[in-house]
Amino acid sequence: MLSALFLSPTAAVAQASPGKHCVPLALILTSSGERQLAGKKVICQGEQLPASGNKVSLLCSVTGQVLSLAEIRWRPKRCRASDLTLIPCAPGSRGQCRRNRGAEEAKAPTLLTPYGSTLLNRRPAFSWQPVAGATRYFIQVRSREQGWATWVDNASSLSYPADKPALVAGSSYTVSIYAYQGNALREPSTTQLSILPNKEAQQLQELIAQIKSLNLPKDEEVYLGIDAAYSSRGLMMESVQVLQKRLKEGSRNPAIYTALGDRYLQAGFSAKAKTEYETATTTAEATANQPELNKAEARLKLVAQLQNSP
């Protein structure tokens, strides 16, 4: 469901109904003009922005889009509330279903990490699904301009070799993994990865610094801001890492678990996503957070459909 951020002639942000949990739509990055949005940092569903004399920069918390709003140039742009159409395989989604990675039995050494197909880290570690009976793997990473290869014995992971050149920003790579049982070649796997261009990486770094400067509560900073900035650029690995880090720090916010489940599902790990959604359901029930409970339950239904599909 789409919810608009309307410009209103009121002097302050109109608040959502009291006693209800906020359904966040956007972060206010900056505001200036005759009527400041003093102290307001999160726009909830159903709230309105004052129009008179304000220039506002917003970060949409689901799509990661940055909107710059000025009264004289206002257009009815919208920030989307969290919905399933942004997740591959969901009804109405334009994304394609991915098979569940990490299955017990693997015929090919499917790449597991890094998550996603776009990377910020130019020296990522690799892990893959082990193939029964395989004793060694041949890893090949190549682009049009460069490439390298190495052998891995009796293991299904590889730290980026120190003696190999770093991946180049803005370039695309093919990662091929070949499983061998003795001298016999088993079925290989191939994955496409791309490295975020330097200009986009710099813009992302500046945006994250701006988010951190808002001094939001840590949970909101992570799942409304930093995760949105990463995931909107396809940086699933960075999103997963920042969400996992927040949970290790002690957060029990159901929104964090749901966001982590979404990233796993986008990366093709439905079993991992299910675990996070189940925890989100439990924590949402414990805090009587109905919006987050609804989100988690809807996603559990989606995972069940995916896992039961042929």
TrEMBL record:
SUPFAM superfamilies: Fibronectin type III. It comes from the Bacteria. This is Tetratricopeptide repeat protein.
